[in-house]
Every structure is written in structure tokens, then in C-alpha cells.
Amino acid sequence: MLGEDAGRLPVFVYGTLRPGLRNHDRLLRGRTVAERPARMRDAVLYEGPGYPFAVAERGGEVHGELIAVAPRWYRPVLAALDELEGYRPGDPRNLYERVEREVLVEGAGTVRAWVYLAAEATALRLRASGTRVVGGDWTG
């Protein structure tokens, strides 16, 4: 169960929310129904202060996992992820924006998912002076 379920999109994660890392253990463990390796095209990763930022960029690729949240946990988990990422809809101070993107899931094709991309001001700063994660895999 990795696709859209009753309007609930899975979440593509590429940093501390990946399985085995601190925020996955804290916010997602025991609340998912599927976790599969996946890739997001047309994005690159930059180092952050202990976590990465995905920035939209043609030709790039980011590696991570597609997480399908259990239906009973969907709303509280999405709210917790928004809080973790400092995302508030429409707030110009956001570091991240939660957006819908297509991701490629190993053995399952393309799936629409939520992903936290660097907000425009953050992306501009990173493009100008950030450190890029070579290969697009923050854990590799």
C-alpha cells in the first residue's frame, strides 16, 4: 500500500526521517504500513545543520524512502511532520514547503507523495553558498 489512499498521500523522506534515523524512530516507528526505497527526480540535496534540504533542480536526483502512514495515524503524523519541518501553510518564514511531487518507487513505478522541499528563500541561499550532497543520498 504505497499509493494514494482516500486522499492520503504517502510521504517521501530523505533525511532524519529515514528508517533507522532519529526522527523516524521518534515520529514514524509503529505508525507506517509500508516503507520502500524511492527516488525523486529534478531535485538535489544540500547539507543543513544536522539535516539536509532538498532543492528543486532539473536533472538532479534525491534518494530516500516512500513512507505510507497507517490510516489511523495519518493526520497526527502529518501534523507532527509539519511541526518538525517548521512548515506553516503560506508563512513566508518557512524553511521548508510541503508539496506534492512524483517519486519513483523501486518495483512499483511512479507515485504521488508529499515531500518537504526547501522554501524559495532557503533554496536561493543554498544555491548561492550551500554545500551540495554528492550523489543525492544524505545517508550514503
UniProtKB/TrEMBL annotation:
<dbReference type="InterPro" id="IPR013024">
    <property type="entry name" value="GGCT-like"/>
</dbReference>
<protein>
    <recommendedName>
        <fullName>Gamma-glutamylcyclotransferase AIG2-like domain-containing protein</fullName>
    </recommendedName>
</protein>
<dbReference type="InterPro" id="IPR036568">
    <property type="entry name" value="GGCT-like_sf"/>
</dbReference>
<dbReference type="InterPro" id="IPR009288">
    <property type="entry name" value="AIG2-like_dom"/>
</dbReference>
<dbReference type="Pfam" id="PF06094">
    <property type="entry name" value="GGACT"/>
</dbReference>
<feature type="domain" description="Gamma-glutamylcyclotransferase AIG2-like">
    <location>
        <begin position="11"/>
        <end position="139"/>
    </location>
</feature>
